[in-house]
Write the structure tokens for this entry.
Amino acid sequence: MQLLRVNMSNLEITREDLPEAWILIGGRGLSAELLNRDMPPGADSLGPEAKFIVAGGPLAGTLAPSCGRISIGAKSPLTHGIKEANSGGPFVQKLDRLGYRAIMVEGAPTDGSLYILKITKDGASLEDASPFKGKRNYDLVKALHETISEKAAILSIGVAGENKWKGATVGCTDMQGLPTRHAARGGVGAVMGAKGLKAILADDSGVLPVEMADNKAFREHMKAWAELMREDLGVQNMGRYGTTGGIVANRKMGTMPSKNYSSEDTEGFEALSGPEFEETNKQRGGRMTGCMTGCLVRCSTIYHGADGKHLTSALEYETLALLGTNLGLADPDVVARLDRWCDDLGLDTIETGSAMGVAASAGKAEFGNAESFYALFKEIEKETEFGVTLANGVVATSNALGVTRIPAFKGQAIPAHDPRATKPTGVTYHTSPMGADHTAGVSYEERLSKEGAVTRSVRIQSFLATIDTLGYCILAMPGQVPKLMAFFKDLINARYGLNLETKALYPLGTNCIKAEVRFNKGTDFETAHPYPEFLRTEPLAPDGSVFDVDPEEIAQAMEQFN
């Protein structure tokens, strides 16, 4: 179990054994441990002292179903605190097969040079990326596949990451080799750009399968799990519709944002939802697929345009909400075009959609008018002053326009789950070390009740931190959670020759959040950004609800993580 350490100041690459005590810790939990161990919390997120982490879970290289989620860890230039952004794609499956649980990138080139990190069975090397400078993600990965490695999985930044814009993502190639999966939140692409890295390639050609302590037991547990997943109705629906399946219900509850998180509806939004969306895409030759090898759910959309050609992939709920209804747009082709624009530039669709919603409310675009938002994207392309402001996120955009109604927590845009319509989720946005992040703990359990909302939030935050630490995909979630945890235990035991009990896995999430809180205490995460007061005063249709959970209860919520 090794860490690949890459120093961009002296271009030195070394291997380091990770502590045996961390054998269960991957993904989000591992990046939190490494950042606490090796980075001064007060360091500039885009400075040479900052660290950039890529981490997989303890089962990534086994190709166990949905266990190859990638985590990118850093100090966020948006929130000023710790950040983990995760994505699908086969990258960490290959990385684990190459012998690495994680990569840590530190330092920065003193001359502003740009590099590509290439990892193969023969080792790791840094190569000159100057021929690829300024390339967008689609052209970049095509060129890298043609010139360096056809079979590599690639992490990359577009011009947004190169320019260190705070809404920048880390693009991850999908199973088709396209840069459509993104570790998007928190500006992690800006951190990668600040390290002088244009791309990271992992090519596991010629590598043997990962060693198993008990290969027979591993296969038997995999077979049983596949049977359980095939029979689970929730998993079946996710495989058919993907995350678009919940759009009608969420929009009718008001939780899916419309026209800058207002109560004004977006006419025709049903065209973005499961059955209608699926039928349109299917007729054009689009389909559902898996985003990593071994996926049993296959909930990732490959979306085709009206001409029958590929337009974008991974067109999911959050994007359809923030670049769709939040802008008053209901045409899936329009949203797909905006999604591809973001993927190509390397921008977070949530942060960008939120910023553009604020811009529209301030008169810079017109809700429901696609051309007005195309014009804003062209400003980003041209790197005009306002285009760069948009690319730096919703807080920068609001401040530039003199807007005080800022839809963000801790500097990060509110995702597609309005806290007025789901109060446990609002508690998560208030208390998570990540700020407003849908992966940190969205809950619709007793969604309008403020009673017990804190408890429900803390419970889901702990559970999802465990899932992220194990590198599992939350969209592959069967209705039987105890069986899920037993599945992890059985596979980990079979791979590593351990004798764990299921209860050994549950503390992983709590310990992860404790490490994140510990890091944030050395930053100005808690004080840098005000809370969005409009959520407490502006009722949301259709229920007329506000976010009214007692601030004192919220303040006490995370005491167990201190």
The CA atoms of residues 237 and 245 lie 8 Å apart.
